[in-house]
Design a protein that fits this description.
Mean pLDDT: 95
Structural class: alpha/beta
CATH architecture of the largest domain: 3-Layer(aba) Sandwich
Shape: globular
Helix content: 40-55%
CATH superfamily of the largest domain: NAD(P)-binding Rossmann-like Domain
Number of helices: 8
CATH topology of the largest domain: Rossmann fold
Largest sheet: 7 strands, parallel
Number of domains: 2
Distance between the termini: 33 Å
CATH class of the largest domain: Alpha Beta
């Protein structure tokens, strides 16, 4: 069911999963607020492409979500521009692979700020308007690592578990107010974030990059295939539809069978 035009904010949406979701929303005719750390010039081509997909407007909002002030201001800035946020997808995330005794404190703090704190700030700003209008959709992009742990990813696993907890809590708070809140938990998706992990994983495990893909990354996924960003975008579109009004507080895995084990 294609709903009327909505206003969507997708954080971390200049590449990978976020871009695929923004692409889907734009093709559905929604207004889309893109977000990333790139300059306006660097994303001009993406904005132009997405603006050509449907009748909605696509606008870029540059903000480094590791910066608390920028993170707190993002959703409010989008609301000032578009008048509201109907669809909020907290997708921004970063990764660092290292044993905990070697894990830099600065990297820990940045991962928590981008992957967890930014979701809190965006929800805190967007939810009141959704409640007032009696309709809203919030999707937090968690991870299979929000349900399972892996070694050498202490900050990422901790924040994704926290994102799942945040999702469930806000879902309960908004359950009678026309707002659904869900977490999508992907397995390994072939994105720039995952590609960047290959070298780190190879170093930590003492393997070649090819062995990392086969023996580390795809080993937990029974399908032995990377999830594609477009698969997650289609799921996000469904969760944002009126048909999904009874799905809230859920963690929906799209992981090739990883968490079935």
């Amino acid at each position: 069911m294609v709903q009327s035009r909505r206003v969507a904010l997708v954080t971390g949406s200049t590449s990978g999963i976020g871009l695929a979701i923004a692409h889907k929303f734009a093709s559905m005719g929604h207004d889309v607020a893109l977000n990333g750390i790139e300059s306006d010039a660097d994303v001009a081509g993406i904005v132009q492409e997405l603006n050509g997909l449907g009748d909605g407007r696509v606008v870029y909002f540059g903000a480094d979500l590791a910066d608390q002030a920028a993170s707190e201001a993002l959703a409010d800035t989008v609301i000032a521009k578009f008048g509201r946020i109907d669809l909020l997808v907290n997708n921004a995330g970063i990764q660092k692979v290292a044993p905990i005794e070697e894990f830099p404190t600065g990297d820990w703090n940045r991962i928590v700020a981008v992957s967890l704190d930014s979701a809190f700030h965006a929800i805190r700003s967007a939810l009141p308007g959704m409640v007032e209008r009696g309709w809203g959709r919030i999707i937090n992009i968690a991870s299979a690592h929000g349900l399972r742990a892996s070694p050498f990813k202490s900050a990422y696993v901790a924040t994704k578990h926290a994102v799942v907890g945040l999702t469930r809590t806000v879902a309960l708070e908004a359950a009678e107010k026309g707002v659904t809140v869900n977490a999508i938990c992907p397995g390994y998706v072939w994105t720039p974030l995952v590609a960047a992990q290959v070298k780190d994983q190879a170093r930590v495990h003492g393997l070649s990059e090819e062995e990392v893909v086969r023996k580390v990354m795809l080993a937990p996924q029974p399908t032995r295939q990377f999830v594609q960003p477009e698969e997650i975008a289609e799921l996000a579109a469904y969760l944002c539809s009126d048909w999904a009004r009874s799905i809230t507080g859920s963690t929906i895995s799209i992981d090739g069978g990883w968490t079935a084990k």
